[in-house]
Structure formats: structure tokens, C-alpha cells
Design brief:
Blueprint (H helix, E strand, L loop, with lengths): L2 H24 L3 H23 L10 H5 L7 H17 L3 H6 L8 H4 L2 H25 L2
Helix pairs in contact: 1-2, 1-7, 2-4, 2-7, 4-7
């Protein structure tokens, strides 16, 4: 398997997570929307890093790696990186609570996340996926 194969696989999975987030939003399953949106963001970003050959920590939030990139990138993508990194840094801490709730407070996920939370997560994931998939299309051309 090549770096390109890995990047393409990550972005394919990201697309599936985004699609599932949209389906969950339509069903008013707001925690699942947030969880799938987070997965989409993580996979999209890691697809780009994999394509660039950048090693990243085995963590869910690699926004610091994005902020520290010193690679010649297309200007449109470089301009989007701060927003992508901010989205990743904001959505990653929601990953666990979106699935498990806040166990120490006996708050299930369903009472933590609102429609607004889910909509914001979905819109942000759409942006990240769109930017990352466009970058990969250009990069592997």
C-alpha cells in the first residue's frame, strides 16, 4: 500500500462519516451527528497529512501539526488551514461526550448536544472535507 492509497482511503472514510452525520442530523440524532462530524474532520485532515508524508501523533487532534506545517502548499489551501485547525481543535473534545455522555455527571449524550451544536459540527465538517478532498484531487493529479 502506498501513501496515496492511505490518503485516498482516509478521505473515502471521511466522506462516509460526513454522509452519516447528515443522516443523523435529519433524524435529530444530535450526538451522533457530532461524533460522525468529528470523525470526518479527523480523517480528512489525516488524509492530507498522509498525502504530504507528514508523520503525526497517534491522537485524534492533530491541529498543532497543521499549524506547524512548513510545506509549500497552494495558497487557497494554506489560507484555509487556520480555520481547519480551529475546527479540529474545537470538535475533537466533543468526540467522547458525543458517544458516552459525561459519565461522572450522569449526563447522557442526548442531553448534552443541541440541534445548533449538531448543525455547527456538520457545517464545519463539510468545510473541512471539502477543502481536504479538493486538495487531494489537486495533489494527486
Amino acid at each position: 500500500m502506498t501513501t496515496e492509497d492511505m490518503a485516498r482511503d482516509h478521505i473515502r472514510w471521511a466522506h462516509g462519516s460526513l454522509r452519516e452525520a447528515g443522516e443523523a442530523l435529519r433524524r435529530k440524532d444530535y450526538p451522533r451527528t457530532v461524533r460522525r462530524a468529528q470523525e470526518c474532520v479527523e480523517l480528512s485532515v489525516k488524509a492530507v497529512l498522509r498525502a504530504l508524508g507528514v508523520e503525526y501523533p497517534k491522537e485524534h487532534d492533530v491541529s498543532d501539526v497543521l499549524r506547524d506545517l512548513h510545506i509549500d502548499l497552494p495558497s487557497w489551501f494554506e489560507d484555509a488551514l487556520p480555520r481547519i485547525a480551529d475546527i479540529m481543535a474545537k470538535i475533537t473534545p466533543q468526540r467522547g461526550p458525543a458517544m458516552y455522555g459525561i459519565e461522572g455527571q450522569l449526563k447522557p449524550a442526548g442531553v448534552i448536544f443541541s440541534r445548533e451544536d449538531a448543525l455547527r459540527a456538520f457545517v464545519d465538517a463539510e468545510f473541512v472535507y471539502g477543502q481536504c478532498s479538493k486538495f487531494l484531487e489537486d495533489w494527486f493529479r
